[in-house]
User: Fold this.
Amino acid sequence: MYKVTLIPGDGVGPEVVDAARKCIEATGVKINWEKVDAGADIMDKYGTPLPDKVIDSIKKNRIALKGPVTTPVGIGFRSVNVALRQKLDLYACLRPCKWYPGVRSRYEGVDLVVVRENTEDVYSGIEFEEGKPETGELINFIYTSTNVKISDDSGISIKPISRRASERIIRFAFDYARKNNRKKVTGIHKANIMKYSDGIFVKVFHEVAREYPNIQSEDKIVDNMCMQLVQKPALYDVLVLPNLYGDIISDLCAGLVGGLGLAPGANIGEEIAVFEATHGSAPKYKGKNKVNPTAMILSGVLMLRHLGEEEKAERLENAVARIIAKGETVTYDLGGTATTSQMAKAIIKSLK
Ligand code: NAD
Assistant:
């Protein structure tokens, strides 16, 4: 019996997490779920979107299945998702983007894996607000040390990229490639402009790549990479990126394989792993039982693999693939009219 923390999240989170939980249980795996709440809906009750008991439960169980959580834009509380990844040092975000037969998409056969650094970059949360005294001090410091004058009405976000964090995420990508018989790892950066931050990332990428002579490696500048991916996705395999580019390219790659409804993910640390879809809380669909549960169910497949339950993971992934291929009981984004729960039920019925 496994013990797993279950975080329904907010927005469409509870609907897709419920669907995923039922599909996971239908494989026969024995899980004792410990449900804890996080997100916008519990702010009034707890005064925080991320109560300590959420962190405590994940630390204890070392594994969690998590629904999306809303982050206010521009104002309000900091991202629960970013806080969780930083507090638990879940440094690797693994996001497979695989095309399944039956999905209407621009390309068939796309099979990419995005490996995103999860702990630093502009997501470090080091920000200086416009007009604050400390922002003025920083602007003065930058002027005296570099002779560059930042406009006084600026807000500033800091982008740290370290050798240590770059090395462990790049090593994670190469190890993943080796274990999963992947041929190539592409390191993505903008080191032509950010020579001291992305510069470290690309330098470490080539150092680590030398230790994996059987895996092809190349680096690409992020803007070129975007164009390459939309034109020739079949040329790429495993992609490793700093945090911000990883966030953006994850959604791009999800778009290549049929949309966010199909893109699963995992946040992985040395000892703890939190499984969640790439998509967010899609607030306009909240409570409508309408969105695609596949991304969350496939996150459950990644969780089963992480637990060593390969056969159950395989059966669940095959059941998802069969329902998508049949195309009869699929949600709106796949051209169908099924609800979230109807699609999950069909997947459970199709489990062999
Ligand atoms: P989103 O991913 O929630 O939704 C964007 C659009 O993608 C939706 O309007 C919908 O058209 C489509 N979509 C998303 N999930 C789908 C699904 N399962 N099936 C079918 N279609 C789906 O992105 P957003 O609207 O930019 O963000 C909403 C909120 O979610 C924000 O507050 C954001 O911060 C948060 N967010 C949370 C996470 C997380 O919890 N890990 C990740 C991304 C965004």
In short: Residues 121-159 form one domain. The first strand starts at residue 2 and ends at 7.
